[in-house]
């Protein structure tokens, strides 16, 4: 049983690491692009004042929601698998 | 504001608190002392977390910062929100599996030593107290706005009242206080934002145009860089915000109160939705504030913009709306203060008094008494400090708290849960170093050491307003290096780690079996 | 602002007065009986919505800064005027009492009315009502486990709807903040107080209903106690008359009648010119009640089926009273109008019916116990019946010398007889076979004593059916014949005992050719204990009562004189009755 749990935790770890990487990239992408691509970020889009910078910043909010939901779903699934394994592999 | 409206203001606060009391009675979770015993659903807990989290800083401070500084203010909101993902991915579930009453329980699951427990308890105390100061500042400013009395007097009055409230009864039902407050806050601010939009006939460009008129920054308002004038400051702030929530004790102990892992995730998800929506609302409110009130009046009321939201309420709906919004803000503050005091007094009475001083032999009454004394102490000390912080934006003060949390609590927690070679020495060193470095940077930084108006009038030794980018890595590295230096044999580290890791990740307790 | 507050309070006072008067009407009280079906909810929503409209009409119209006019708001208003409506009070109450559906419904009614009135805040006013109703309903569901939320809670909850209203006003129509200033606080204050007071009023109405119900219960219990002496009476007509008088007096009914299965036994009250004792029970509803053993309610004239034109009754409640699962009486309450029957009356009738039936069961059980005890006592005496014993022993002593064989036989019979008497005490029912043995033993002895004077014939079917009868039921009949009927007959006396099977029934007939029963005693001999004789055998009365108690009315003794002289006593018992399970 320990073996199976370890495999499961490996999967979880991989998913976690991927999500974290995505998170860091997206999040720090904001200050990064603000620093290094200021002209681009400050270009107005639809109307005066709504720069790409704002859109990027706004996007962080739905990004949080979506990433959070995805993680929650995936983790719940993995947990369910783990439960089934525990039941199945049990004496 | 005249007396009638002030009475109205008091009346709304009282109504909200009474409704909270009824809600709590209904659910019979009158676990007076340590957090409510696992009977909240995921969504309710999410509401409670949001309630704990959305303090005067998020409400008044953020609105003010956006109103004055534009884009940079919104960066605070973003940081505050995204940090929840860090909590969700890395910290929440292990904390849920490992702990019972306080954050120290989590770390002590692995390293059960009094030294660690006391250090962690102290860290909790420090952070709670740092978080409390901006709340008192905000309430002092509010009271000054409402009643036109001197700031110092306001702060003393408020500090005193809150301390009394918490000492004598505020321990009860804080989960429900948070929930009710979140509902009222969200509804009130949502309606307010609708009013703002309707003033501008629902056209965003009209808002923008008006803003540009009103702010001295003109178009630069929408461009980043007004507040955070260098990339280093920017990244430093973002880092501190991202990692700070995962080190806040009063948020993390909320994960003890749900039944299982699924509910933990659900409560986090709900919290992110609620907080996200709230920050969108505050964006509208921030814009509205500057557009409707104008820079001069804002700064006149409070130079860092803390009073933007109430002033705008007054502009839109007269004293009526001002009283209502102020009441909401006040209830928010009271709720957060109650939550903070709970976590701080838990740290004191459960960790220090019960475990360390009395070695686990106290009764609940003794602990209650110890808790009350610590509540009194914290209340007094925060009030004293708040007296001197009149001119700081409260969001900013909170972000400093985040820095301390991200440099001390977060590294230790993270390494405890995930790093095999972490040991007790590392934990202690990490915590202590993190705390000292971040506080030092603060004290030696441009806030306190300011030639004009700071506590210490001389040039600042530490250049950054946001010391995160220095303090956080220092915290991490000190913990890692200390562990490596004072390493025990690697074998015992492995043994110790494996069952702990499994427990942290899955909740399965294998300690009984393998040890 | 002060004037506005006072003005609003005055208007609300008006509304509260109307509300209070409404609560005095029984119609309104029935409205508050909480029934959870959709139809009732819609009715409630409608009523409260109307009240909300009344609130709007009692409201105030603001024209810019000042109150436009002081008349009630009947017609649509100008475009720049604002209707300050008091409808929220009714809507919140609707939500608190009836839940989200009633609240939203009432809000919709009031809101649509406000939409039509127009003015500056038309949309805000129109929206806030259904919204408030919905939220109030949800809040009530969430907070309160009581039937009606407490006035204090209502007070605090009532603070928030006007705040919502002000917000909506600001959102939907950029109203100047000065207007908000003017009406905001007054609305909050007046609304919350009015809601609290209204809730308190409703709580009082409900309390009254509860008190009524409690009183009715107390009344029912008292009546049941007072009825006990009447129930004990054996004479049905007396009992019926007493009972109906009692019920009518206590319950203040128009009329009461007590009937058994066939005819009306007693009637008191109005309309006693054409409703009278002795009339047959003709109502189909009454028969239905007696068949199903359930209370039935007649709500129209036609259901009462009274042929008399000036019969004043429109409604009636029929209550069957049972004793040991058999309907023996039907009590009818008469009402002049159908709506006089309130839930209180129905519950009372039901309760009374059950109580009286229970009383009867208890009485019957008591009486049975008495009879059995009586039988046991008599039996004990009979076991050592001195005369019988002396005579029989004397007979045996005489026979010793003359006919030793017979002496022995009689001794055995005597022993059998006495043994059987012993067994009597322990079983309420014994197999027919045993009883036949008992009778036989007795008969042999008697025959031996009165060989020349008396002849006993015993006839029973070849195979004695597997039936149970109470012990010592046939032997006393025989004894009775011998002791009374044939007392004065010197010779040729004959006693016949016949046991026959007939249509699934067992008939037992005991005949003698003696002097028969005295006519005046015929009716009474089975209904009253006759204690004149020193030779206490089991009285016919005792046998009769035991038969009836254990096997029902059908098993009673039939007593009569034969045309040829002599008497006949018979009874029948059903066979294969699952109740007859006596045993050893």
Automatic annotation (TrEMBL), chain A:
<feature type="transmembrane region" description="Helical">
    <location>
        <begin position="49"/>
        <end position="72"/>
    </location>
</feature>
<keyword id="KW-0812">Transmembrane</keyword>
<dbReference type="Pfam" id="PF04341">
    <property type="entry name" value="DUF485"/>
</dbReference>
<keyword id="KW-0472">Membrane</keyword>
<dbReference type="InterPro" id="IPR007436">
    <property type="entry name" value="DUF485"/>
</dbReference>
<protein>
    <submittedName>
        <fullName>DUF485 domain-containing protein</fullName>
    </submittedName>
</protein>
<feature type="transmembrane region" description="Helical">
    <location>
        <begin position="15"/>
        <end position="37"/>
    </location>
</feature>
<keyword id="KW-1133">Transmembrane helix</keyword>
UniProtKB/TrEMBL annotation, chain B:
<feature type="transmembrane region" description="Helical">
    <location>
        <begin position="235"/>
        <end position="256"/>
    </location>
</feature>
<dbReference type="InterPro" id="IPR038377">
    <property type="entry name" value="Na/Glc_symporter_sf"/>
</dbReference>
<feature type="transmembrane region" description="Helical">
    <location>
        <begin position="74"/>
        <end position="92"/>
    </location>
</feature>
<keyword id="KW-0813">Transport</keyword>
<dbReference type="Pfam" id="PF00474">
    <property type="entry name" value="SSF"/>
</dbReference>
<keyword id="KW-1003">Cell membrane</keyword>
<feature type="transmembrane region" description="Helical">
    <location>
        <begin position="6"/>
        <end position="24"/>
    </location>
</feature>
<feature type="transmembrane region" description="Helical">
    <location>
        <begin position="320"/>
        <end position="349"/>
    </location>
</feature>
<keyword id="KW-0472">Membrane</keyword>
<feature type="transmembrane region" description="Helical">
    <location>
        <begin position="394"/>
        <end position="419"/>
    </location>
</feature>
<feature type="transmembrane region" description="Helical">
    <location>
        <begin position="468"/>
        <end position="486"/>
    </location>
</feature>
<dbReference type="InterPro" id="IPR018212">
    <property type="entry name" value="Na/solute_symporter_CS"/>
</dbReference>
<dbReference type="InterPro" id="IPR001734">
    <property type="entry name" value="Na/solute_symporter"/>
</dbReference>
<keyword id="KW-0915">Sodium</keyword>
<keyword id="KW-0406">Ion transport</keyword>
From TrEMBL, chain C:
<dbReference type="Pfam" id="PF07694">
    <property type="entry name" value="5TM-5TMR_LYT"/>
</dbReference>
<keyword id="KW-0597">Phosphoprotein</keyword>
<feature type="transmembrane region" description="Helical">
    <location>
        <begin position="83"/>
        <end position="116"/>
    </location>
</feature>
<keyword id="KW-0472">Membrane</keyword>
<dbReference type="InterPro" id="IPR050640">
    <property type="entry name" value="Bact_2-comp_sensor_kinase"/>
</dbReference>
<keyword id="KW-0808">Transferase</keyword>
<keyword id="KW-0812">Transmembrane</keyword>
<feature type="transmembrane region" description="Helical">
    <location>
        <begin position="187"/>
        <end position="206"/>
    </location>
</feature>
<dbReference type="InterPro" id="IPR010559">
    <property type="entry name" value="Sig_transdc_His_kin_internal"/>
</dbReference>
<dbReference type="InterPro" id="IPR003594">
    <property type="entry name" value="HATPase_dom"/>
</dbReference>
<dbReference type="InterPro" id="IPR011620">
    <property type="entry name" value="Sig_transdc_His_kinase_LytS_TM"/>
</dbReference>
<dbReference type="InterPro" id="IPR005467">
    <property type="entry name" value="His_kinase_dom"/>
</dbReference>
<dbReference type="InterPro" id="IPR029016">
    <property type="entry name" value="GAF-like_dom_sf"/>
</dbReference>
<dbReference type="GO" id="GO:0016301">
    <property type="term" value="F:kinase activity"/>
</dbReference>
<keyword id="KW-0547">Nucleotide-binding</keyword>
